[in-house]
Amino acid sequence: MIELNNTINWKPKSTGVGRFGNWLENLVDWNLSRSRFWGGVGLPIWITEDRKEQKCIGSVAQLKEEIERAVEAGFMTNNPLAEYISDDNSEENYSKFDLHRPYIDEIILVSDKGEKMYRELDLIDVWFDSGAMPYAQFHYPFEKVITLPTISLPILLLKALTKRAAGFFYAACHSNNGFRLRSFQNLCFQWLGSR
């Protein structure tokens, strides 16, 4: 990531080689989750009350199947994803449900041992949504396979306030690093001073 960072046209340059460059050199883990009610998609993790069994759901289709199991076990009265059609990536199909809080919190799943499972209450940090923009706009990997030239990388220009950019910068660097491409071509930062 440091090598790719050095190919970005930073304005002012001191931000890229200084603040963010130093940050990358001393990088520590960044939580994927946030303990908030609003502001992101719920973590797709369900856990039993004794916390001994866990499930991480990988798609809406899988969640629909797991809810059906919970309905059969008597933990749910109906499946809120019943009308969702797998492999139909239309906006109409995705408008049939909401994966945000409080709706996602109402879903109870069943563990392999037959126990009730409740969703972990944290949310995915909204910056990860933003950082996934270059390939998420194509609904990758669910809707279609994309090739590297198709992906809008690097992001040609990001103009942001320095204090607000750390999360987006970090998420974009990490999410795009899987493609071994730099995340940005040009970054222009504004500074807001206090009076």
Model description:
- This protein is an alpha/beta fold and 195 residues long.
- The protein folds into two domains: 2-31 and 126-190, no CATH class; 34-123, no CATH class.
- Helix content is 31%, strand content 17%.
- The chain has seven helices and nine strands.
- It has helices at residues 2-5, 13-25, 60-72, 91-94, 126-131, 133-136, 162-177; strands at residues 9-11, 33-34, 45-48, 54-56, 109-110, 116-119, 123-124, 155-161, 184-190.
- The strands form three sheets. Strands 4-3-6-5 form a four-stranded antiparallel β-sheet.
- A hairpin with a 5-residue loop joins β3 (45-48) and β4 (54-56).
- The chain starts with a helix and ends in a 5-residue tail after the last strand.
- The model has no long low-confidence stretch (mean pLDDT 78).
Question: What is the gist of this entry?
Answer:
The protein has helices spanning 2-5, 13-25, 60-72, 91-94, 126-131, 133-136, 162-177, and strands at residues 9-11, 33-34, 45-48, 54-56, 109-110, 116-119, 123-124, 155-161, 184-190. The chain is α/β, with parallel strands linked by helices and 195 residues long.
Keywords:
31% helix, 9 strands, single chain, 195 residues, 7 helices, four-stranded antiparallel beta sheet, 17% strand, alpha/beta, three-stranded parallel beta sheet
Topology of helices and strands:
Elements lengths: L1 H4 L3 E3 L1 H13 L7 E2 L10 E4 L5 E3 L3 H13 L18 H4 L14 E2 L5 E4 L3 E2 L1 H6 L1 H4 L18 E7 H16 L6 E7 L5
